[in-house]
Amino acid sequence: MSKVTGKFQVTLPKRLVTAYGIKVGDEVEFSAAGDRIALRPPGHKPVDRARRLREFDRATERQRNRERTRSLEVASERGWTREELYVRGRSG
What we know:
Helix content: 40-55%
CATH class of the largest domain: Mainly Beta
Distance between the termini: 63 Å
Strand content: 5-15%
């Protein structure tokens, strides 16, 4: 956590400076992000909305495929399915 100085300056944590390659003299961009403030490091290229949506859709499809595959694997490993739990032990 950083404190704001009397001149409204903040010191960036070393781990972030290192991770994002920020150097003395670099210009960074601040922007409002809901109830937060976002800082964009130098050389950051924003992703256009269409590309972000395409990547989100691809990630969602990959997750659905993983869930389908995993549910089939788990059922075959344990020898029963979730649906069978609702009928086991019931007479009639």
